[in-house]
Amino acid sequence: MLLSAVQASLAAQGHRVRPLEAVELWSGPWGWAAQPVLAAAGRDVPLWPTALVLLAATAAALAYAGKTVAELPTAVLRSRARASSGVLAGIMAATRAQSGSP
Fold first, then answer.
1. SS3 state at 99
2. Second label for 88, Cα 20 to 30 Å away, from 22, 59, 79, 98?
3. Distance (Å, whole) CA 32 – CA 46
4. For residues 18 and 36, is the Cβ–Cβ distance under 8 A?
5. From CA 79, how far away is CA 86, in angstroms rounded?
6. 68, exposed or middle or buried, with CB in 10 Å at 0-12, 13-18, 19+?
7. 33, 53 contact by CB (below 8 A)
8. Could you read off the pLDDT tens digit of each residue along the chain, which spans 102 residues?
């Protein structure tokens, strides 16, 4: 957070801090996925080939997960949904009990 504030202050004065820009690009939830697009647009993006490999791996994992879920019987999916709902309800009840909320 402090680094972002420092960079914002420096950017307002017309100074760029490339190492901080690289850290921010990799630290965001999907900043790494945008790097190949930025490189294609002509921007100077460090390590964009690595980001492209990660993006391709993510796409392959999503395709595999979609295929696997499509092969599961509906009854199994419903059973797992009920189980996860029960776990979430237990966690919320425990959290409320610890905080003293009704």
1. helix
2. 59
3. 10
4. no
5. 11
6. exposed
7. no
8. 787 788 888 889 988 888 877 887 888 777 888 888 889 999 888 788 999 999 999 999 999 999 999 998 999 989 988 999 999 999 999 888 777 666
